[in-house]
């Protein structure tokens, strides 16, 4: 069983989420690429699965960050005095 498609899917998902990153897409993309390149030589399937799980956690955290940002914007828009 190859884990390569899972890694590519995670990378694409993170790239897509990076478009709305507060510090800019270029900043996010360079950091993302660096973190993936740092682990490019990992061959142990257990380690790769741990790294994928960590990446999926980061996806959830970024989504939560965006949801909070949208919520605060809406709250400010309608309830600011």
TrEMBL record:
Matching InterPro entries: Complex1_LYR_dom, Complex1_LYR_ETFRF1_LYRM5, ETFRF1
Superkingdom, taxonomy of origin: Eukaryota
Domain Complex 1 LYR protein residue range list: 6-58
GO annotation (BP), single: respiratory electron transport chain
GO cellular component terms, semicolon-separated: mitochondrion
Family from the record: Belongs to the complex I LYR family.
Protein name in UniProt: Complex 1 LYR protein domain-containing protein
Naturally occurring in which organism (per UniProt): Ladona fulva (Scarce chaser dragonfly)
């Amino acid at each position: 069983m190859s884990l390569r498609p899972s890694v590519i899917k995670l990378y694409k998902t993170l790239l897509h989420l990076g478009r709305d990153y507060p510090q800019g897409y270029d900043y996010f993309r360079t950091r993302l690429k660096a973190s993936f390149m740092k682990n490019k030589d990992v061959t142990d399937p257990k380690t790769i699965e741990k790294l994928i799980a960590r990446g999926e956690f980061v996806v959830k955290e970024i989504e939560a960050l965006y949801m909070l940002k949208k919520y605060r914007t809406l709250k400010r828009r309608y309830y600011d005095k």
